[in-house]
Amino acid sequence: MTDLTRHTAAELAAQLADGSTTSVAVTQAHLDRIAAVDGTIHAFLHVNPELSLAAAAASDARRAAGKPLSDLDGVPLAIKDVLVTTDMPSTSGSKILEGWMSPYDATVVTRAREAGLVPLGKTNMDEFAMGSSTEHSAYGPTRNPWDIDRIPGGSGGGSAAAVAAFEAPFALGSDTGGSIRQPAHITGTVGMKPTYGSVSRYGAIALASSLDQVGPCSRTVLDAALLHDVIGGYDRHDSTSLKDAWPSFAEAARAGAQPGSLKGLKVGVVGQYSGEAFQAGVMTRFRESLEMLAAAGAEIVDVSLPSVEYAVAAYYLILPAEASSNLAKFDSVRFGMRATLTGGGTVEQVMSATREAGFGPEVKRRIILGTYALSAGYYDAYYGSAQKVRTLIQRDFDHAFASVDVLATPTAPTTAWKLGEKLDDPLAMYAQDIATIPANLAGIPGISIPSGIAPEDGLPVGIQFLAPARHDAKLYSVAAGLEALLHAQWGGPLNSQAPDFDTSSRTQSTRGGA
Amino acid sequence: MSDISEDSVRHLAGLARIDLTNDEVTHLTAELSKIVDVVATVSAAATDDVPATSHPIPLTNVYRDDVVTDDVLTTEKALSGAPEHDGSRFKVSAILGEEQ
User: Fold this and answer.
1) Which of A195, A217, A431, A444 is the most exposed place for a label (fewest CB within 10 A)?
2) Is A265 inside a domain boundary?
3) Would the pTM of this model clear 0.80, i.e. be above it?
4) How many C-beta neighbours within 10 Å does residue A118 have?
5) What is the ipTM of this complex?
């Protein structure tokens, strides 16, 4: 019997359609995989096999009756814990929401259920999505399946690691400054941040509302596109939801994978994303991918985004400012934790004690920073200036996209680092987002796909493509085009090359470090 | 150089309703000073002639008719995650302290 966890979501959907497998069998295979490896990887904060198998059995009944809800009916899905669910706890990686059950489902979860997808569980993340390593989860870090002594990226390290370790064929993530794309780069998987407003944020526990966007994580471009087709589109519950009619992203990916699709494509290479901050192996694989694109008929053009030099600084003003406001709702009254004070205390004292006990160090750091950036006397110099930088970055992108179809960058400067290495240096952690943040500031879509393995440390590397707002389909077609060339070279997805990790121990790696 | 002091961190923590320990105040003062020095570089790029952008995709206000829809939370559901409630309302601790 073949291992069902090694198949893509598209392959599983085909097998479910032709009757060669069942959703119960597929779901059980993934639950078995989770039981075998998640003690080591810790991608999941919550799994409920009974619930998943019941959803799978219902899917099989629909298939048997000839009434599947969609092509993906019965395919399992992992869900980032930032997305609220009525039947599983939603914590956003924070102690302050430990065990909290949402009274409603996030719109993307509703749409996944309506398409017959089978929820496998909730995935680990940096607390309230603040971080680039998943080490800021209140429930302990997730480990990178490529080397369990290393971080899986963040904030969506749980979703990326679950997909990379074959615990799920695909997963939902959220991306505020790179939380889908950077973990994809770090774990050798695919991650897409859609155009701002193209996927509903309703029921995504807000971090920074003008930057947050929900999107898919997977091992192939087609699987990401299939999931995007399920979750995307207008939602009246999200006041920033776009009313555009979106094309089928799966069709865009399938068309992009055909030979000749890259002919005549104009790819802009951003001059600002090179130099000593970028690891040698990251640049080697990046340049190889560009050569492949050129050999397939694409035109590679140098472009400049002069204002991205200020992007990280602007982001770490706008994000904390918005987060300090969004997280004010954790007031110990309406949901979540409430600290007990001797003698009772006033509501203000109880709230302050609750937030002291319930928030981790990174969350406190960013709330205080945001409160500072918004305070009287500093607002214009900090928050106001950061919003101007946002305008400048949008202008840079407009200027670049006037002459090219897509932009290409390395997704992040380095491969996976060791757990703990950057925990005491917030600025070093923030610098990891240098290539992903501008897309969030400008609202444009971005996708990261694996471009190979860095020769110096054997760890995966990603390439990021960016397109103008609303041109998400273009990204799927370009990414699928390059992926087809890379898979032909590798003999399949990059994760088939990942070394087996030792599940017997949490402290020993199966491979040496760099 | 930023003007972050332990006193200003305590003041900000008060505004943000977080009881920081003395240790946390010391750590945060040092960390925030470094972070603010870096983020303050935005002012170099932000000249007077550049308009601010608050939202990535321009949208006008979204209105709907002022009628109750069928998908609002029931009282029971709205209270379901509260630390304390009386069946119809959230329960909070005393609003005023004894000295007030």
Assistant:
1) A431
2) yes
3) yes
4) 27
5) 0.94
